[in-house]
Amino acid sequence: AGAQVVAISTTASSPLAALATQVVVLPAAQKQDHGGTISQQYAGSLFEQSVLLLTDAIFQTLWALDGTPAEELWQRHANLE
Questions:
Q1: Within a domain: residue 81?
Q2: Which pLDDT belongs to residue 30?
Q3: Does residue 46 belong to any structural domain of this protein?
Q4: Is the pLDDT of residue 64 over 70?
Q5: What single string gives the DSSP state of each residue in the chain?
Q6: What is the pTM of this model?
Q7: Is 1 contained in some domain?
Q8: How many structural domains comprise the chain?
Q9: Which of 16, 24, 38, 62 would give a disulfide with 29, using CB separation of 3.0 to 4.6 Å?
């Protein structure tokens, strides 16, 4: 209902990308790349690692711009361990 979606995908033509308002394309191995043409890692591991680095960098940038102290963020941190 009026939401904007940002998709992170290995290709701009993925089904998820078709639903998104904006698409970030990470040129990493796709799950179907069993031949290791892009990465020697299994399936989508390179993509998953790239998403982690990208989203962590986005978070760090937004946090720096916001200036919220780490102690305040920690109170809202989810413990999934």
A1: no
A2: 66
A3: yes
A4: yes
A5: -----EEEES-TTSHHHHH-SEEEE-----TT-TT-SS-SSSTTHHHHHHHHHHHHHHHHHHHHHH---HHHHHHT-----
A6: 0.71
A7: no
A8: 1
A9: 38
Phi-psi region of 6 (alpha: psi -120 to 50; beta: other; left: phi over 0): beta
71 is catalytic: no
Whole-angstrom Cα distance, residue 31 to residue 43? 4
**Nearest alpha carbon to residue 28 among 19, 42, 17:** 42
- Residues facing 8 on adjacent strands: 24
What confidence tens digit (pLDDT) does each residue in 9-63 have? 988 999 999 999 999 999 876 666 656 566 677 667 888 898 999 999 999 999 9
Among the listed residues 48, 71, 72, 81, the single catalytic one is 48
- Residue 80 located in a structural domain: no
Residue 50's domain comprises 6-75
